[in-house]
Amino acid sequence: MNQITKEMRDLARELLASGEVKGLIGWTKGSRWYLTPPLFITRPEEAEQLYFDQFAVNNLTGLLLDYRYGDDKIALFVKGCDSRGIVRLLQDHQIKREKVLVIGVPCMGMSDKKAVTDPRQPVELPLLDKCLECRYPNPVIADRLIGGALVSGEPSEPKGLTASEAAKRGVGSKQADRFAQVKAIEAMSADEKYAFWQAQHEKCLRCYACRNICPACNCRECIFESDKKGWVNKSATPTDNAFFAVTRAMHVAGRCVECGECERVCPMDIPIMALNRKVIQDINELFGESDAGTDLDGKMPLGLFKNDDPEEFM
Amino acid sequence: MKRIGVFVCHCGSNIANTVHCEKVAQVAKDFPGVVLSTDYKYMCSEPGQVMIQEAIREHNLDGYVVAACSPRMHEPTFRKCAARAGMNPYMVEQVNIREQCSWVHANKEKGTEKSIDLLRMGVAKVVKNEPLYSTTIPVTKRSLVIGGGIAGIQAALDIANAGYPVTLLDREHTIGGRMAQVDKTFPTLDCSACILTPKMVEAAQHPNIELMTYAEVEAVDGFVGNFDVTIRKKARYVDFDQCTGCGACTEKCPKKVPSEFEMELGMRKAIYTPFPQAVPNKPIIDAKHCRYLLDGKCGICKKVCPTGAVDYEQKDELIVERFGAIVVATGFEQFDISAYEEYGAGKIPDVITGLHLERLMNASGPTAGKIKRPSDGKVPEKIVFVKCVGSRDEAKGRPYCSKACCMYVAKHATLLKEKMPNSKSYIFYMDVRTPGKNYEEFYARTQNEYDAQYIRGRVSKIFQVGDKLIVRGEDSLLGRPVEIEADLVVLAAGMDPRGDAKDLARTLGISYDQHGWFTEAHPKLQPVETHTAGIYLAGACQGPKDIPDSVAQASAAAVKAAGLLSKPELTSEAMTALCDEAICSGCGLCQSICPYKSIEIKSINERYHGQMRQRRVSNVNQGLCQGCGACTVACPSGAMNLKGFTNDQILAEVDALCQR
Fold it and tell me: What is the arithmetic mean of pLDDT over A171-186?
């Protein structure tokens, strides 16, 4: 058992036993060596099930939405990327600050389980692209810290117990490539772009996994499940899928925290982050560089009226 | 299905030349819901409107579409027309087949086709229109005028004379503004103070005017008819109730500082009134220079004051007052000549600006009206004027004309010749612009009778040689360089917006252009209104102006303000945003993006899993909302809808367009 897992269990036991929190969301070792899925516990003795390794990739923050109208205080573990989701939910007033206890963990970079060839044979796996491009390996917000994690609201180097491992594995080594895919698609002709996206949208199953995992997708009622006819259609045709994809991207515009979970959970490997990144790139160009979900008191560029806002269209 | 009428207007030949109006009306008969479709030469004319009203009654219409000019032109006409026939005015849609079709197209077949498409969209939308109702809001019958220059004074007097209380606010501790600094006024050459000070006194003594000098607007909340204005009354350190204005303190004060009023050509004390005719004519202490307030040593003014009015303990005071209307008259600043390196960047003492010369000419100025140049007090003989300094100069970020300089330079040249018959004025100009009553005649006299020499061309460099100033330029009419050895150079510095104009604009929620001049609601038809209802503009804060223009605009703004205050109550906008609380997630994006501060988050109680829970939702103040729609696009959940432009209505239009 690794040190972080040990500290996790100790803290969880303490928090649940003292009654400081009513529930706790973390990760547990799954049925296979490359699975470390989310775990929800309410009793101190369940803390033994907690586990942390390079497969604890799930961003747990979206799960807090299940408790947004409750009275219970919930604790959850966050890696750097996940922690921006907490800021998202707080800024969107979906959770109350006093109803959540954020525990920051250091991150060694998450492995890409799509590279698994033999489920019975543990091997060293490459890092997820999002970890190679990672700029926020340390939590941006936390009430407690374990594993030597440090809070940092700015892009930073990996800190804590796993710092050297993260560096060795190449966490953040491809930060500069963050917009590479956007640039590649932008370089296509209009017809090529259309063909590219049409091919992607044809694959979409409308399973809504991307929406469900997303901390920015926190509407009470998703428009794609409403009975409003007209604007949106539930059928999984290429046209309607394209409409869904663009609507989703614009829905999280200025609010996407770049955790990359939408793309990771997509069963059809649709490059969802390319669309999110395109929007982020445009916002940066129009309103100046900013990273959503890194500053709790920061103003969102698209959520602010200024008299000197550009008005080219008027 | 609703019963819809369609009325296609020819607008004489404006539309009919490029659109087969009869055909458009004919085709519209088959649109879903349409029970009547017809065309007419002038729909907005009395017979046209009667025709619509009769059709509403005869065909029992639920709504109608008029295909005509822009709604900006005649929407109110057609809404009122509906109301007269007993139909809710918001059951009318106007389709623009003039500005957006006939005027911009030449092909009649294509124009007709496009008109049909636009009309189909309009019909699809009106079917989804709902009756909308305005509410009424009360009006606080009191006005605030920000800025006590000639524009502010005039506006305050006019509103006060119309019978409404006015608070006239000035950040300086006297009213009078720029005009008080001016010596004589063109084109009549009457003394500026002689015509200004009676107005200052009248404003001070008017029973309907409350003077609030040495005060600034800190925050503005509320909306048309009910603005809650937070005002900072700055500490004067002199109790005005006790001060008699005897002047003993000013006389004895040991601290001298350059006088802002005298353009730093003269000195003032740390406790001072800026000029003899100041209103109120009582001194204040300049805390930045007062020895007592800085070091705790001195206290002479307190000792000599016979009434004990000096109070070093005074603090700024914040008050909140409610006003129905606001007139903004904050004026201008003179362009800072330090931007012109080639003209000495303001560092050559004898290169001065127009306002400096005003003070040198003024009998109560630092030289008692004798023209003495700042460096050595010598009386200048050759004077060079350079026009368009900080005006019409793209390189300095001032592409606009400052409007008053041509005339004030002519005035200066005339007055200099009168004061010093042996002097000679040379005036470098780009163009001479004299559009105003008796302006051109004045300019002609300056040349013919007062011997001013106008040289068309730019000055490239001004530098000192001995006690002379060498002005190097070009005479572009003769096409050759000129060099003049001058004793004094006057730069006709243009007008700049106030340095903090943009901050005030944000506080008030009004817009400004790229330079910082406040923007009127319409450059021709609404020149004194702003886009924010209840806030009006007067004088140079809206753009460079001379005194006659400022006064005229001030009276216009006053009429608008008084007109607003005369209403028993105001009708609020009916097309406002509405939040669907069932969908609203309470994120508050709409609140931060709302330019009118009309959205608040409220808490609602809701049953959730068998228990009562509180939940945040947005609440639109229907009186404040101006229907701009910013919140509807910002809302991530689509909970915000704009009445009259609902998502459903827009979708219906898009669908209709796709059905061709």
Answer: 94
H or E stretch at B111: helix B108-127
| Rounded distance between C-alpha atoms, residue A116 and residue A30, angstroms | 15
**CB count in 10 Å sphere of residue B233:** 17
DSSP secondary structure string for all residues of chain A? --HHHHHHHHHHHHHHHHTS-SEEEEEB--SSTT---EEEE-SGGGGGGB--STT-----GGGGGGGTT----EEEEE-HHHHHHHHHHHHTTSS-GGGEEEEE------B-GGG-S-TTS----PBPHHHHT-S--S-SS-SEE-TT----SS-----STTHHHHHHHTTTTTGGGTTHHHHHHHTS-HHHHHHHHHHHHHH-----HHHHH-SS---SS-GGGS---SS---S--HHHHHHHHHHHHHHTTTT-----HHHHH-TT---HHHHHHHHHHHHHHHH----TTS-TTPPPGGG---TTS--TT-
What is the C-alpha to C-alpha distance for residues B192 and B185, in angstroms, rounded to an integer? 6
Interface test with A, best of B609, B626, B637, B653 (most A CBs within 10 A): B637
Sort out which chain A residues have CB atoms less than 8 A from B532's CB and list them: none
Q: How far apart are the first and last CA of chain A?
A: 62
Residues of chain B falling short of pLDDT 70: none
- Confidence bin at A68 (pLDDT 50/70/90): confident
Which of A283, A300, A291, A221 lies closest to A81 in space, CA to CA? A291
CB contact under 8 A, B637 and A221: yes
Inter-chain touch B595–A302, beta carbons under 8 Å: no
Q: What percent of chain A has pLDDT over 90?
A: 78
Contact between B530 and B554 under an 8 Å Cβ cutoff? The reply is no
ipTM greater than cut 0.90:
no
- Count of other CB atoms within 10 angstroms of residue B518: 24
What is the pLDDT, as a whole number, of residue A312? Answer: 66
Q: Does A255 touch chain B (CB under 8 A)?
A: yes
Q: Could you please report the per-residue DSSP string of B514-576?
A: TTSPBPPSBTTTBSSB-SSTTEEE-GGGGS---HHHHHHHHHHHHHHHHHHHTSSEEEPPSS-
Q: Which domains does chain B have, with CATH numbers?
A: 4-127 (3.40.50), 143-330+498-565 (3.50.50.60), 332-496 (3.50.50.60), 577-643 (3.30.70.3270)
Select the residue of B512, B592, B601 nearest A303 (Cβ to Cβ): B592
Task: Name which of A91, A64, A89, A88 is nearest A76 in CA terms.
Answer: A64
Rounded Cα distance between B51 and B45, Å, is 10
pLDDT over 60 at A314, yes or no = no
CB atoms within 10 A of CB B225: 24
